[in-house]
Amino acid sequence: MFKHASKLLLVxxxxxxxxxxxxxxxxxxxxxxxxxxxxxxxxxxIDPGAGLMKQTxxxxxxxxxxxxxxxxxSSAAMAAALDxxxxxxxxxxxxxxxxxWMFAKYDLKYLEDPKxxxxxxxxxxxVVRNGLKEDAPSAYAMLDRFEWTPDEMAxxxxxxxxxxxxxxxxxxxxxxNADKVDAWVKDLPKESGKKLKLAFVAWDSEIxxxxxxxxxxxxxxxxxxxxxxxxxGPMWAGIANSSADAMVAAWLPTTHQDYYDKYQGQFEDLGAxxxxxxxxxxxxxxxxxxxxxxxxxx
Length: 298
Ligand code: PBE
Description:
- By secondary structure, the chain is α/β, with parallel strands linked by helices.
- It has 2 domains: 14-120 and 279-297, 3-Layer(aba) Sandwich (D-Maltodextrin-Binding Protein, domain 2), CATH 3.40.190.100; 123-276, Dipeptide-binding Protein, domain 3 (Roll), CATH 3.10.105.
- Helix content is 38%, strand content 19%.
- The chain has 13 helices and 10 strands.
- The chain has helices at 35-38, 51-62, 75-87, 102-105, 132-135, 137-145, 150-161, 166-176, 178-185, 204-219, 232-240, 257-262, 294-297; strands spanning 42-44, 69-71, 94-98, 108-110, 123-128, 194-200, 223-229, 246-252, 268-275, 278-284.
- The strands form 4 sheets. The protein has a 3-stranded antiparallel sheet, sandwiched between helices. The chain has a 3-stranded antiparallel sheet with strand order 8-5-9, sandwiched between helices.
- Helix 7 (150-161) crosses helix 10.
- It starts with 34 loop residues before the first helix and ends with a helix.
- Mean pLDDT is 91; it is low at 1-29.
- Bound molecules: 1,1-dimethyl-prolinium.
- The site of 1,1-dimethyl-prolinium has 12 residues, from helix 2 and helix 10.
- Residues 1-19 form the signal peptide.
């Protein structure tokens, strides 16, 4: 699918990765000990099924962080830990990704990844079950056309973190972006209450996108959409075994590559709905480190 003529999207939040190195004085600072000591050799992770966790394990191997621990949890728990540390100006290292509201709310930076453990920037794809095209052609067509930018997604994400309910934030976005939404549904027939299941994982980015797609399918095309919140593995399995109809949460080509390979042939990839993502280790800007390599040397 050639929905994106240009991949030269600038993503707010990526700029944090550029930092000036040099003249840093070595192993410790006022709060005592190495960076590892300060954060108790812990990296705050998210849900275990996330590709980001597998990539972080790979990074820990690549950079020789064998005495470090990647703590499992959830997106929400990671964000809460970051919020708490940030308010107290304490050191913390989290697994992070763009697009995410945390880059608007806090002053953060990605640690440089000279070994390339986190791969290249990638895309978020829309993936549907086999046979959806025949069973729900208008939903299929809308899902195929759905694409937006990190900035547009940020509007919904920021509203949600500021306390708006996800479905309301999505409805407001759909209303405010009627022209864009018109193009997604142009000339498609309306259903009357036909059921559709969207699988998603409770990552902030996917809460935003899945809710927007739900609103459009319901308001504009007359579907009755059920959102199934699952883990990453079951999300892919659900599309492959047709217990879910579609998802807009496939991070490719790297992050979900194992799922993609595992279920090859049992789903249809409708291409990118967003380009310009990034994954990595994220720290508050007040921390005196710039690279993953600093975790061993500082
Ligand atoms: N994420 C956000 C997901 C994809 C969306 C980066 C946390 C993952 O790692 O699988």
